[in-house]
Structure formats: C-alpha cells, structure tokens
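Example record

The entry below shows one chain as it appears in the dataset: sequence first, then structure tokens.
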Amino acid sequence: MSLRQLLLRLPCYLGASGPRRGPLDTISSVVSWRGQSSRSPAHWNQVVSEAEKIVGYPTSFMSLRCLLSDELSNIAMQVRKLVGTQHPLLTTARGLVHDSQNNLQLRGLVVLLISKAAGPSSVNASCQSYDMVSGIYSCQRSLAEITELIHTALLVHRGIVNLDELQSSDGPLKDMQFGNKIAILSGDFLLANACNGLALLQNTKVVELLASALMDLVQGVYHENSTSAKENHITDDIGILTWKKQTFLSHGALLAKSCQAAMELAKHDAEVQDMAFQYGKHMAMSHKINSDLQPFIKEKTSDSLTFNLNSAPVVLHQEFLGRDLWMKQIREAQRKGRLDYAKLRETISAGKGVTSAIDLCRYHGNKALEALESFPPSEARTALENIVFAVTRFS
C-alpha cells in the first residue's frame, strides 16, 4: 500500500485519540477591533478555500510530495502497527489528513499569499528570469513546501512520549517505545528533506532565516516541555510575558521568518521584508491564542476534555488572580489526585482570563492588519486580511 493510500485511510483506522501531554500591559491598548460582523464557523473553511484559488492550487497536501517517497512509505507501514495504542503519533497522522478547524497547512498558504501580495521587486530585476505561476515565483512555492515540512516534522517530534512519566492507563511500555522510534525517524526524515530543499534555493540569507527559525522552534518546544504543568505536580509559574516569548519561539518564528524569506527570494528591500515578518509573527500569535481559547468558548465541549494549563486564557487567569488563589483553585478542582477539568474550566471561564485572551488575540490581529497596509491592494492581500478576521472572531 502506498503512503498516500494509507494516509487517506487513516481517518478510518484511527478512531480514538491518545491523551494530550502535556499581556496585561498590551491588552489594555486594544481600542477598536477592525473585524467586520461575525460569521458562522464555516467561514474559516470558506476563507481557506478562496485563498487556495488565489495562489493557484490547493495546499491541503502541500507536504505530501516528500511524504509520497519510498522511504517514508516504509515508515508509514510501521505506523499501522501503532493502531490500537494511545501513542500521540496517531493523533498527528490523523490531523495531517483531516484537520479542517486548525488547517495544518496554513503556514505554507500564508507564505504563498504574501508572496503574491508583494509581487516582484520594482527596484531589482535580477529575479525576473525566474518562472512565475499565478504571480508567485517557483522558488517561493518551494519555500512554502519547506515551511510545511519543518512544521510537520516538529509536530511529529512533539508527539514523542516521555517514558519516565508513563502511567498504566497509557498502555504497554513497548508500544510507546516503538512509537517514539517511528516519530523520531519520520520527523528527522522530513527535516532532512527540508534542509535539502533549502540548499537547492541557493540563497544564503534564506537558509540563515529558516535555520534560525528551526532553532527557535527547538528552543520553544524545550521551554514548553520544561514549564508544562502536570496534573499531580503543578509548580511552574508562567506569566503572560513569558508565555508570549515562548509562543513566538514555538509557533510564530517559523511563519514570520518564512514570510520574510519569501520577500528575500523576490529581492524586496528590508522594509518590505520587515512588514512580511510582522504579519507572519502577529498572525501566528493570534492563531495560537484562538486555538487556546477553543476549550473555553465552544458551545459543545466534552466534560472530559483536557486543556493546556499553560494556554493563554489560563495564564491570564492566573496572572489576574495571583499565585496563591490560583493554587487554591487547582486544589479545589482535584479529585482523587487528578484534575477535574470540567470544574476548572468553569472556574476559569467565570474570571477575566478568557475575555482578556480574546482581547489579546485581537490585539495581534490588528498588528497583522497594520503590517499589510504596506502592501498594495490585491485579492491576495484581501485573503490575508480575511484569514486574520477568521481567527479573531468569537461570536
């Protein structure tokens, strides 16, 4: 069976998902939100679909050109052996082929859109000989694919389980050990292909930008893991400023520096590159906050649904309360040594953390829209604006 066939069948194979492992100073500066009237949740899918038409082709399987190789096909056959276990790699694989809410291919799409919105440089004609399709250079399309490969690789690596913290409910140790080996092998394979693609671009600055983004990702993931609060041992105290720094490293740096690299490939000046960087940075931040908010704003939320105790609404809630009151609420939400997430979610929702996180999401959305004002009006720029509107609406 080919990898593509396996990926398309994964939603059927993978029924149950495994357990998740786990500024006040700027919020007040949000004045008027630029968003238009609220729309239905389906609007996000519509925005992405229209954006894909603008860039010339669907980006839903952008990274599959690498995935459809003989080497990774062999790995995919091994992934099937994990079906029936609770290893997080299965959740990642399922999300790769079906994740309409978060759209795992968003980063590549944004790189293509901002490439088209900027167009060719008006002062440097050295890249005019490059082939261009739908207003986007082929090297920029390659960059978008590389961005997705790096992101996918880090998603796979994040699914590696800490074997020292395994519980009996997680399943046999040998299943987790085997899943970790597959996650490391497949993630490294994707990163190797991304590095090879970067070398083929033959642009030293672009290589430096993406290499630094990769280092930021590694550093961000490391800090996320080191400050991750555990159900039975909650000792870490992370403020919103620390949260913003870590979130930029682990979620914003790749998109920001990829957008800047796309401008470098088209020989745009430093000012245009900086505006592209700012859009990518603030767009990624607002997208992450939107994701963090979902357990608190969904109309239908499972009582058993866990959420990250270092997510934006929780961090802001803790910062408003203070450390002592927060720890008291944690103790009150514990039952038989485990957290009652439904009770804790109700407590957090009753405070200021959720509304403050919405304000912070819109603050970054406004910053992203401000960066776009430097680009000429076009359908690509409108699509980038609509993506911001889609992730900053909550009603």
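Notes for this example: The longest strand covers residues 132-133. Residues 239 and 315 are 6 Å apart (CA to CA).
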